[in-house]
Design a protein that fits this description.
By secondary structure, the chain is an alpha/beta fold. It has a single domain, classed as 3-Layer(aba) Sandwich (Dihydrofolate Reductase, subunit A), CATH 3.40.430.10. It has four helices and twelve strands. The protein is globular.
């Protein structure tokens, strides 16, 4: 099984969205360079960010996200973001009416089931778990191996927390990557077992 990584862009004060559920300038770093991050050429980052992010993206076999994110993005129009092969949506509701059954999206009830399904789909590749409530639940359940944060230079003051509603202490190892890009600081921690 591949490693399970909790990941998101985050404000300096630990939020992945503001109080109106908007990312604001959290993703400005994805437009702050001159190196194309994907085939579309729309995302352009610094060479330093590219060298860190592109290999990570290439290792992802499946992403686990909550229904809230799925709904906010309109299901990414049935195409997983960033060229990822599969998205596992954790939800207590049925898939949307009229949803394309061929789209590589899998709807499951519960975080444990979501991570297990994503690991089946990803094989030995990485499973990415979106930060927020689902990511926090996966961390609390002991399912996360690594935490990655792209810290944007903004303070929200309130909003949607990176670790969701986690209310217990979880220790991480020393950061094994601290990389400065344009308008972003990339951090990576292993979860202490």
């Amino acid at each position: 099984m591949g490693k399970v990584v909790m990941y998101a862009s985050v404000s300096v004060d630990g939020f992945i969205a503001d109080r109106d559920d908007q990312p604001g300038p959290l993703f400005d770093w994805l437009l702050s360079g001159d190196v194309a991050l994907d085939e579309s050429g729309e995302l352009k980052v610094s060479q330093t960010s590219y060298d860190y992010i592109r290999p990570y993206w290439d290792q992802i076999g499946a992403t686990v996200a909550g229904r809230h994110v799925f709904d906010l993005t309109d299901g990414w129009d049935g195409k997983p973001p960033g060229g990822i092969d599969h998205v596992v949506v954790v939800t207590h509701r049925p898939k949307p009416e009229g949803w394309d059954p061929e789209a590589p999206f899998h709807f499951v009830d519960g975080v444990e089931a979501g991570v297990a399904r994503a690991q089946e789909l990803a094989g030995d590749r990485l499973v990415e778990v979106a930060a927020g409530d689902v990511g926090g639940q996966a961390l609390a359940a002991g399912l996360v191996d690594e935490v990655r944060m792209d810290i944007a230079p903004v303070v929200f003051g309130s909003g949607k927390r990176y670790f969701g509603s986690v209310d217990a202490q979880h220790l991480l190892e020393e950061p094994d990557a601290v990389i400065q890009g344009n308008r972003v600081l990339h951090l990576r921690y292993q979860v202490r077992r």
